Amino acid sequence: MRKLLASLAITVGAVGVAHADLQADADAAAGKEKAQACAACHGQEGISPSGAFPNLAGQQASYLAKQIMDIRDGDREVAQMAGQVDNYSDQDAWDVAVYFADLDPALGQADADEALVERGRELYRAGDMSKGVPACAACHTPTGEGIGSAVYPALSGQHPDYTLSTLQDFASGDRNNDPANMMGDIASKLSDSDMEAVANYVLGLH
Question: Who has the most CB within 10 Å: 54, 106, 146, 161?
């Protein structure tokens, strides 16, 4: 498992380096202008009013840019995003990504249910070796801020409904745009209650 994570980090890190010039040239002011249409679902400040849509404020720019381009190119299907980014250039994607990345992230409060929090903490910080599930913190960091150079997303403060639906999509194969299908493999080993626990835990993580 450690070798898999290390190998994947190197591979994805190389992808991040390949886009370093675009990120360096990204214009947050231009991104703000392009992002006006995003506000209806993702909020004026990148914090969505609905758990059906993800918070984008404070997200890793490299991850956001990749998702925008994957949706544009048909590598990730999001029905609500149909046609929204079809005309985006790579630079447009980076401009919008840097704009949202520069905004203050959401701060959430997890459900205080002791058993739910404890299971979420266990999975996030230590994983579950009996199921072959690595710690979420290995890729998303102990504070949930993600790793931009490896294109690993921030999770802290994310809506539980969105995190849960994302894990379910990875587990079912409905979403498969992560390198080496690592998230698909991990999510498929989680029970519904495990997914709920992780989703609750990352909401309050910061």
Answer: 54
